[in-house]
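Chain A, query sequence.
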Amino acid sequence: MPLSPGPFTGRTITSLAQDLREGRTTAVELAEQALEAIAERDPALGAFVTVDADGALAAARRADAELDTGTYRGPLHGVPVGVKDLFMVAGLPATMGSRHFAGYVADSDAESVTLLRRAGAVVVGKTTTHEFAYGPTGDRSANGPSRNPWDPERMSGGSSGGSAAAVAAGLVPLALGTDTGGSVRIPAALCGIAGFKPSYGAISAEGVFPLARSFDHVGVLAGDEQDCLLAYRCLASAQLREDPGPSRVAWLDPSELFDGDPRVVDAVRATAESRLARSGLDEVRLRAGLGEEFRETYTVIQSCEAVAVHAARMAQAPELFDPELLERLRTAAEVPGWRYVAAVAARSRLAEAAAALFERHDVLALPTVPITAPLLQHRETEVDGRTVAVRPALLAMTSLWNVLGLPALTVPAGTVDGLPVGLQLVCRPGRELRLFQAAGMA
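Chain A, predicted structure.
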């Protein structure tokens, strides 16, 4: 059974900001609504690992005092926000979803959290992450799994599953996440909300615990793409490039990436045609074998960089890892150095191949995830009468864009069997506004 909607379900940041400016609500009232909703609903959801009621109410009172004196910091002023438990937030625990960091408290804010505060946002707490962000399922964490609000017996997706679940359940209107292979977009799609991963480095990752440094992106999750854009404007390290003129959109045939559920693909394609190009979409295809080359490059680089982060912990206290995560790290440690060097070199070839896809089109459209949310802890699922491995299925259509650091946005694209599916839009670096323009929101 789906969870009942929370207080921020269907309320946009724009409407909240207008209510605050015009005195119909206060930041304290919004913070109290978020805190009450978390207390009531989160035990069944597992979206939050730390709730900072005192800090949130203090920040909300400051936001209200500023509004009373005519100081308005922008659309996030007074808005409650959740922050993935991979980000440092001064004075709050930062567990990274692992027993390795039990009791650790951050002494300063991540740069993106500093920017949130500067924009007037009210941080209400830290959201659940798959342990060390090393998994797309969201159900392996020392803090317990984050659950899908549409069906709490199913995965939220990961690794930013707590952020997605918190927004989808209406506990907060906005949350921060990270995305190394799809960790913003996968849970956003499975939970029926919007998620945005900008160009590599467009939002600072300073103060965010790494998974694979050359793939790690900071991203945002919200109820719709307009709210993602509002948040991104507050967090971006450079001014967004205005891109006038209509966006040329093409459907990227997903069959070269994964043989997914045809009902999901059909639902997403129908949404793309309805939302982006009522007269029909151009279609492009990856050349034969390119999808496999992307997967190999992603897997090798991520494996080696993840082991570099965790090698000391693997040697000194392996028992503190979740067993599944430890097994993955030990497998990753077996990747020889020459394969890492070859994979890094392959990125240049892959960038050239991707550039060819954008020669006549500004935006590529494809499913975000080719299946619906699997059951918690299940590592295989049935797809069109076949048994498929869950992890490769979840990552199949998102991870290649991390290899190249391309901006990608997921938006809701209806449901299949009562579970959400997502439409993914991808563009060239620095052209982020094209994605929102294509979605009709910029």
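The longest strand covers residues 408-416. The chain has a mean pLDDT of 95.
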